[in-house]
Amino acid sequence: AVVPIVNWLIESTGWRGAFRVMGVIVLMIGLPVAMVMRHRPEQYGLLPDGDSSPEPTELTESTSDNRDQLNTSEAQEFTPLEALRTTTFWFFALSVSVRVGVTTAIAINSFPLVNAMGGTAGQASLLFLMQGVLSAPGRLFLSWVGDSINKRHIMAVSLAIMCVCLLFMAQVTTLSQLYIVWIPYTIVWGGLTSVPHSLRADLFGRRNFASIQGAMAPIQLPFNLVAPIFVAWVFEQTGSFQIPLTLFSVLTFISMVMILLARPVNRPTTLQSS
C-alpha cells in the first residue's frame, strides 16, 4: 500500500530524497516498535486455543496425516538438525522457495511488465496497491480456515489457482486484462505468505521455529537470486514475458506437488528418548 506513495516521492524528490524520507520513517517508527515487541505469545498471556498451560506438551505418538491440524503446543519439537534429516523439511522448503522465487521475480519485474504494455510507472504502482489491499483477505481468511482444514491442502489449492493465473498472465496483452488476472493472483499470494509459517510450526514445533526457518534461507536464496534476473534477461532477449511466466506456471505446479508430499512425520524414537 505504500508503493504508490514511494513512487510519488521518487517522482517529486528523486530516489535519493525518497530514500532519505523512508530512512527517517524507519528510525522514528520501525525501531521503537521493534524494541517493544516480545518474543513469544505466552509473554502476552496468549495460548493456543484450548490450552490451559503455557508449557507445550509433546505428541508421543501419531501417524495420522491430520497431525498438521493439531495446535502447535501438541506438536513434536524438532531440532533444526532433526528437521533437516526429514524428507518433509526438504519438500516443504523447496515448495516455499519455488513459490517465493516466482512471486519475487514477478514483483520485481512488474514495472517493466506494465511498461511493455504501454503503461506508466503510476499504473505499475497500482499493481502493488492492489497487492497490498487484496492480499489482506487472503492472509486473514486462509489463515483462519487453516485452523479447521489441512493447511497443506489449502496451500495446494492456492498454488493451483496461482498456476492458472500465471498461465493467463502469460497471455494478456492489455493492462485491463492484467488487472483482472492480478486480483485472484494477489488473493492467493496473501494466503501463501502466511499459511506456511503456521504449517511449519505444526510440522516441526515452535521451540526451534526461527532456527528451522533460518535453515530454509540458503534454499530460498538461489531462487530469489536467479528468478528475477532470468525474467529480465528473457525479456531483453525476446521482448516478451510469455516464456518466463509460462515456466513459472509449471514451477508453481511442481511447488503444489511438493507441498502435498510434505507429510507430517514423527521424531525417531531414539531421538525422543535421548
What's the topology here?
Blueprint: H1 3-36, H2 80-84, H3 87-108, H4 110-116, H5 121-145, H6 151-169, H7 175-204, H8 209-238, H9 242-261, H10 269-273
Outline the structure in words.
The chain is an all-alpha fold and 274 residues long. Helices cover 72% and strands 0% of the residues. It has 10 helices and no strands. The longest helix is centred in the first third of the chain and has 34 residues, at 3-36. The model is unreliable at 56-75 (pLDDT under 50).
Kindly state the number of beta strands: 0
Q: Give a quick account of the main beta sheet: strands, pairing sense, barrel closure.
A: none
Helix content: over 70%
Structural class: mainly alpha
Low-confidence stretches: 56-75
Shape assignment = globular
How widely separated are the two ends?
49 Å
Beta-sheet strand percentage?
A: under 5%
Mean pLDDT: 85
Rg, Å, rounded:
21 Å
Q: What series of H and E elements makes up the topology?
A: HHHHHHHHHH
Helices, by number, come to 10
